[in-house]
Each structure stands twice: as structure tokens, then as C-alpha cells.
Amino acid sequence: MSSQPRGAAMPEDDLDRIMAVMTAAFDPQYGEAWTRRQVSDALVFGQCHYRLIGPEGTAPAEGERAAGFALLRTTLDEEELLLFAVLPAFRRRGLGARLLGAVIDAAGTQGIRRILLEMRDGNPAESLYRQFGFHDIGRRPQYYRRADGQRIDAVTFARQIG
């Protein structure tokens, strides 16, 4: 599994990998995917960083596509999981669990005390997050808007570290 040190420049091929996973993994009806510019801009600042996982559960080899990624923002002793995705073809193989476990382990070694995330109500990834000890701590009513105009609540989850 590869990760980007905080504040380090992002290789262009890593941005390509993240965008390829996001395009395939995020259902467009929910409008959750970020643009290339949004991801790139977030990573310019030292608080944001990412992790990639390849199809075999390790760092993707040079020229190999990523099977998943996590984009995170660190503020003091908290980390926010901004984006998390695994390609649909690689789901149900343990890659999401391996990636999330690596995120949690790295946070613990860096003095992070809590990880936060927010997702739309009904997101199937909720079971993975709960499996790793995340619990809901808040709700934003009708925060997300689907392409058809229907509104969906956002749910905030947290997990203590250590």
C-alpha cells in the first residue's frame, strides 16, 4: 500500500489513479465524486494526504492501476476521512478493510486521537466502518441531493484511536 507524506507533491499518475477509482466507484446519482481540481487542490495543503491500494492489497506497482484509495485531512490530533473508495470489480475481497485498517494504524502512530467521516445515509460502506469501530455521532438532515432532486441525510461517524 502506498501513501503520500503530508505536504509532499503528488505524482500526476497517482492523481490519475485516484480519479479512475472515483469515477468507477462513486454512483453519479449522488454527486459525491470530487473533480480532479478539487482533489489536486486539497493535496496542495499540508493537512491532506492519501493512500492507495493495488489489486493485490499492496502498493500499486508503477504503471498499475489502483484498486482503491483514501483521501484524508489532518487537523491537530484529528483526522477526517474525506473520500474512500474501492473499484467495484475489487469489492468483497477485503481490500477496503485492508485500506481502512492501514489508515487507522497510521493515524495511531502519528498521534491522531480520533478519525471522523461523513457519508450519505444508506451508503453500503457503513457496515465496513462499523466493523472497524466507527459509530454515528450526528446527522445533517437532507444534506445530500440526488440527481433526481431527492434529499438524503448525511451521517457523521467517529472512531477513537488508542
Short description:
With 162 residues, this protein is of the alpha+beta class.
Number of domains: 1
Total helical elements: 4
Strand order of the largest sheet: 1-2-3-4-5-7-6
* CATH homologous superfamily heading: Gcn5-related N-acetyltransferase (GNAT)
**Structural class of the secondary structure composition?**
alpha+beta
**Proportion in helices:** 25-40%
Cα separation of the termini: 22 Å
Element pattern in H and E: EHHEEEHEHEE
Strand content: 25-35%
Topology:
Layout: E1 2-3, H1 12-25, H2 36-44, E2 48-53, E3 68-75, E4 78-86, H3 95-109, E5 114-120, H4 126-131, E6 135-145, E7 151-160
Parallel strand pairs: 4-5
Antiparallel strand pairs: 1-2, 2-3, 3-4, 5-7, 6-7
Characterization of this structure:
The chain is built from four helices and seven strands. The protein has a seven-stranded mixed β-sheet with strand order 1-2-3-4-5-7-6, sandwiched between helices. With 162 residues, it is an alpha+beta fold. The mean pLDDT is 92. It is globular. It has helices at 12-25, 36-44, 95-109, 126-131; strands at residues 2-3, 48-53, 68-75, 78-86, 114-120, 135-145, 151-160. A hairpin with a 2-residue loop joins β3 (68-75) and β4 (78-86). The protein has one domain (2-116): Aminopeptidase, CATH 3.40.630.30. 27% of the residues lie in helices and 33% in strands.
